[in-house]
TrEMBL record:
Residue intervals of the UmuC domain: 6-194
Lineage, broadest ranks: Bacteria, Pseudomonadati, Thermodesulfobacteriota, Desulfovibrionia, Desulfovibrionales
Organism: Halodesulfovibrio spirochaetisodalis
GO biological-process terms attached to the record: DNA repair; error-prone translesion synthesis; SOS response
One GO MF term attached to the UniProt entry: DNA-directed DNA polymerase activity
The name this protein goes by in its record: UmuC domain-containing protein
An annotated GO cellular component: cytosol
Family: Belongs to the DNA polymerase type-Y family.
InterPro entries referenced in this protein's UniProt entry, alphabetically: DNA/RNA_pol_sf, DNA_pol_Y-fam_lit_finger_sf, DNA_pol_Y-fam_little_finger, DNA_polymerase-Y, DUF4113, PolY_HhH_motif, Rev_trsase/Diguanyl_cyclase, UmuC
Top-rank taxon: Bacteria
Amino acid sequence: MSLAAYALVDCNNFYCSCERVFRPDLVGKPIIVLSNNDGCIISRSNEAKALGVQMAAPYFKQKRFLERNNVTVFSSNYPLYGDLSERVMNVLRTFCPDMEIYSIDEAFLRLDGFSAYNLTEYAQRIRNTVFRWTGIPVSIGIAPTKTLAKIASHICKKAPESSGVFNMNDFWHSPENIDALLEKVPVQDIWGIGRRSAAKLANYGITTARQLRDRDNAWLQKKLTVTGLYTGLELRGISSIALEEAPPVRRSIRSSRSFGEPVTEKKDAQEAAVAYTVRAAEKLRREGLLASTISVFIKTNAHRPGDQHAEYCAHTLDSPTDYTPLLVHHASEMLLRIFRAGHKYQKVGVLLSGLESKRNQQGSLMDITSPETQEQAQTEARLMQVTDAINKKFGRGTVQYAGEGLRQPWKMKQNNLSPKYTTDWKELCEVE
DNA sequence: TCTGGGGTCCTAGGACCC
DNA sequence: TCTGGGGTCCTAGGACCC
């Protein structure tokens, strides 16, 4: 039987690469992309990495250094990244229909059926095509399991001579090569092993992927739960984490942001809670879902130990809904309940959970409710449809809820935003 | 002055039931 | 009144991911 073959296609420094597609003048130069609120650094070009710029470093601490070194800085522009991601995924699908979109910049492909091809060459073709059609450079790791494919893609990024593809299957049948390779992988670089588990494993003298692989199943399960057991099996080449081709059913929708400035006024925190509820409810309807529970949380800045307050409040509705005014009403009320004057708040968030499909619900609703209730439900649904349609056509916030406020002093910072080149007619790229 | 946002899964423990 | 096993469901907290 031939070896299973999973490929992980991973976009290189994805957000930076997206910015460069529209700014070719920045190719070969150091650039970075910041998190929301211009808080910390979440993507670095190779040139920025070479300067020693650290991932997740707070921007304000690096600002001087970045200026001195002529690093170009971008606020994150998610509509742009989402659009380019979709284009990359569409190209990949033409090469392999057995595909799992794992994140905005990664996809797993199941390449078993392509044994007639030389897989390394096939991956090379995928890589070249993605770059030609979208401008995004990718790395591809191939191995008998998803966990090993992740490792293969890391290896490939670190080794320039791999020319963007690393195929572990090519020498799977020489165990000493695989041993040598896994020996060089630190345990915390393995998919599914985070900081806490790595620290725990270090206490048992386990610091490399090879050492983890060689522990027995019972030990792995005892120390790291079943997820750790699966990781161990996958490191041995036994596929235990399946390809998920259909996106999993969503369980929750969250909307939360750090404030641009610390918030001390109840009214401002309440506006933010309302605004986030409006956004979460839009997403709910876009995906044809209803929520049965809404929660609101508020917190102060964890980096300011002198002023700490964090609280959370949940409300379960009589029946699941996607009606914004009702959700806004509950969110607003809960916020007032958890807000305490005298604190400098950093963040408010809204979580919708207990989600179910609207389609399943409608039938049963019709059976048991009165004509008046049905009519009201239809009026509400139409109102939501109309506001969604207007906001889609003319831009978010064209129709706004009064509770969201107008001045919005709590709004996040985005001082280095690039234009919406691909998703907004007003900001299309101009060609001269 | 300034430190992201949005998700999932697993386990333990409590409440409740037969 | 006391005793017991076994099952389900829910929630909070921890850990992980990109």
